[in-house]
Amino acid sequence: MKYVIGVDLGTSAVKVLLVNQEGVVVDQVSRPYPLIQEKAGYSEQNPEEWITQTVEALKQLVERFSEDPSAIEGLSFSGQMHGLVLLDYKRNVLRNAILWNDTRTTRQCQDIYAKVGKDRYIDITKNLALEGFTLPKLLWVKENEPDIYQQAEVFLLPKDYVRYRLTNQIHMDYSDAAGTGLLDISAKTWSSEICGRLNIDSSLCPPLIESHEFVGTLSGSVAEQTGLSPKTKVFAGGADNACGAIGSGILEEGKTLCSIGTSGVVLSYEEDGSKDYQGKVHFFNHGKEGAFYSMGVTLAAGYSLNWFKETFAHEEEFENLLADLSDVPAGANGLLFTPYIVGERTPHTDALIRGSFIGMDSSHKRAHFVRAVVEGITFSLKESIEMFRKNGKNVDSIISIGGGAKNRNWLQIQADIFQADIVKLASEQGPGMGAAMLAAYGLGWFKSLSECASQFIQTEEVIHPNPEQAERYKGLFSIYQKIYKQTKDLNEQLAPFRQ
Ligand SMILES: Nc1ncnc2c1ncn2[C@@H]1O[C@H](COP(=O)(O)OP(=O)(O)O)[C@@H](O)[C@H]1O
Ligand SMILES: O=C(CO)[C@@H](O)[C@H](O)COP(=O)(O)O
Predict the structure, then answer these.
(1) Alpha-carbon span 446 to 437, nearest angstrom
(2) Which positions fall inside the Carbohydrate kinase FGGY N-terminal domain (predicted)?
């Protein structure tokens, strides 16, 4: 039997999947790393931690593998998007990576519009200039850390840096480059116009490549450290959401994905670049050559639940925390939560908004708060689904992946709130599976990603909405939608008090 590895460099952990030629996940290893949050709105990681944990995860996987490691023929990546990694001319990392959920760059986003023009910027990139994207981070470093900026020779995204350390090759694939805010999405080139207007040297931008393209083999030292064969072929890989889409079979029109990881996304396949959402949802190049996807993003989806767990139930596992979920009625006895704990993107692009619990009552127990957090995350994703429905998409079946898809009761809540069938796959690790599929396709095992998907992706269960609960959630959702407007001004006034 032959095998491939999908490396998913997530925000909370790196997850490494070993998949055989029949598409069965035969083993997986997950290794966590922390977020560094020096101030409210800041979110960084040390790229060296990604390397240490990825190498360790690969090593563990190989140690547990009973066959000859040369049977593992290929490896590819999925990575958290938008994070800025700056390297100097010796390829040393110049500072911590600034991540997708860091919102320090509101002023730089305004600058981008002032210098490029908002309409022109959206024309080129098909997206708004958002705090989380890479370009405003580059401008922030240029302005606030000029010594570091001057030493920068190239910028990379998180998984591109890991790929570089595994192969010594520098590249960025289109699906991830799309999230930098510097790519001309239709032309698939770095935008010399944006670089020119913002005075960014375009030599900082790395060479571009397709997600399934062969990059090189593993470096000798990485092969030695992990036990993998030095002949293992490495393929570029893609943005985690593009890979999540591949790993869930979102490879044709009409398919919708909901992914609840640290962030939460609702994603829809786009055959070509013709749809104009005017920046209301993100619009990026897919990991499938020539295709695109649109998506709405909740910044703190799984992260809200993780925050709640770490703050109020630090020693407990998620399974335990969620054990009482179905004992609490829909609507948590009048308790609503908005998951804006690090600001928000869709539908409210707002770095200053923060979360709320509305309707706290002395009868509420911890389980009500947990249910309210889970429902609030799901309501937030419903706002993206409604945007797609208003744009004429038919969303009656949604594939659900990510850490949030591990809990059966949460999947039922998704079906009831979204008013759609929820498809649970055999593996909820969509991005890692997508990365493995890119390696399998890159190796030539299949003629297309779709052919690979029909072999690799298995549906485990379809969960239908419960009509009574769905009706109850309709009313609750309209109350939820009012909270943003009614707490916006209060949060702007509170912003100066945040440390
Ligand atoms: N057993 C579980 N049940 C429900 N949610 C879970 C469970 N385990 C993890 N999660 C949620 O999934 C999130 C992590 O999802 P994951 O897809 O691994 O994220 P990332 O790719 O961002 O690292 C956690 O923050 C948590 O909210
Ligand atoms: O910023 C975005 C998408 O635009 C996030 O979806 C990141 O790509 C991080 O993903 P997860 O770690 O939550 O999977």
Answers:
(1) 9
(2) 3-247
Mean pLDDT by groups of 10 residues along the chain of 499 residues = 98 97 97 95 97 98 97 98 98 98 96 98 96 98 98 98 98 98 97 98 97 98 98 98 97 95 96 88 97 97 97 96 96 98 95 97 98 98 96 95 96 98 94 98 98 96 98 98 98 94
Give a yes or no: residue 138 inside a domain.
yes
Per-residue confidence (pLDDT) for residue 274, from 0 to 100: 87
Name the domain count of the chain. Answer: 1
Is residue 190 assigned to a domain? yes
Residues 6 or more apart whose Cβ sits within 8 Å of residue 84: 97, 98, 134, 137, 138, 141, 155, 157
Whether 176 and 241 have beta carbons less than 8 Å apart is answered as no
From the list 173, 240, 350, 416, the catalytic residue is: 240
Rounded Cα distance, 298 and 348, in Å: 9
Cα dihedral across residues 153, 154, 155, 158: positive or negative: negative
Q: How far apart are CA 454 and CA 436, in angstroms?
A: 14
Hey, whose CA ends up nearest to atom 22 of ligand 1?
262
- Residue-number span of the structural domain to which 185 is assigned: 3-241
pTM above 0.90, yes or no: yes
Q: Tell me what pLDDT residue 278 has.
A: 85
Tell me, what DSSP letter sits at residue 285?
Answer: E
The CATH code of the domain that includes 227 is 3.30.420.40
Please tell me the distance between residue 29's alpha carbon and the centre of ligand 1 in angstroms. Answer: 15
324 C-alpha vs ligand 2 centroid, how far in Å?
Answer: 28
What number is the ipTM of this complex?
Answer: 0.98
Residue 184 annotated as catalytic: no
Q: What angle do CA 252, 258, 261 make, to 5 degrees?
A: 130
